[in-house]
Automatic annotation (TrEMBL):
One of its GO terms (molecular function) is DNA-binding transcription factor activity. It holds the Pfam family CoA_binding. This is Redox-sensing transcriptional repressor Rex. It comes from Mumia flava. Modulates transcription in response to changes in cellular NADH/NAD(+) redox state. GO terms for biological process: negative regulation of DNA-templated transcription; response to redox state. It comes from the Bacteria.
Amino acid sequence: MNDLRPPAEDRPVAPGIPEATVARLPLYLRALTALGETGLRTVSSEQLATAAGVNSAKLRKDLSYLGSYGTRGVGYDVEYLRYQIAREIGLNEDWAVVIIGIGNLGQALSNYGGFRSRGFRIVSLVDGDPARVGEQHGDLVIESMSDLDRIVKENDISIGVIATPGDAAQGVADRLVSAGVTSILNFAPAVLTVPSGIDVRKVDLSIELQILAYHEQRKRLPGEVRS
Ligand SMILES: NC(=O)c1ccc[n+]([C@@H]2O[C@H](COP(=O)([O-])OP(=O)(O)OC[C@H]3O[C@@H](n4cnc5c(N)ncnc54)[C@H](O)[C@@H]3O)[C@@H](O)[C@H]2O)c1
């Protein structure tokens, strides 16, 4: 019989997942990948169980060990469940990330331990202020913008995070792109222009707060005006 388990060194460290469940995870992963390729976004436990060739009660129990319970009436998000299982088996890719602008925000991001477990490894901190170069932050030392090309190539970095002031962000984005970075997460208050093929995501907490403020305001309106 084929042993479907991943090699011992790839087995999850999370305690409490029975070996029999671990052995079924690759089946679910394969079924989810196939379902995802058909364009399916969500899947019921019955559908997934059929595709994986197990019974649905067992599948629900197995997935509950991963903290995945699905949504009643909707099922499981195919892509997210695929990600969770791949992570559990140790298959997810590891993305090297550079942060540019190591001020308040850049330091907070570099100190955050949660990226690592999600497959993002911050491999370099870069700042444009020569006085900051050489400063130690955790395991990393702030590097110079003039070394960006080398840093990106040596570490095979495809994602850059911009945490500089807004007026510096476009120049930094240009430098990232010319160094070979193809995805940018921009925290600076600036709209970036990038060549096609470069993905930019913007994070703006003030916009999120404004949305909450809008909802707060509506909560205070009398019932008949709100509805
Ligand atoms: N998106 C959000 O929700 C959010 C939240 C907080 C802050 N911000 C933004 O994040 C940015 C950083 O905020 P902060 O409080 O950390 O600022 P900060 O002034 O503490 O740090 C900015 C850093 O960028 C460096 N820098 C400046 N110009 C540079 C350049 N051309 N190349 C490389 N490095 C350069 C500076 O030397 C400094 O270390 C700001 O644009 C701020 O508006 C966004």
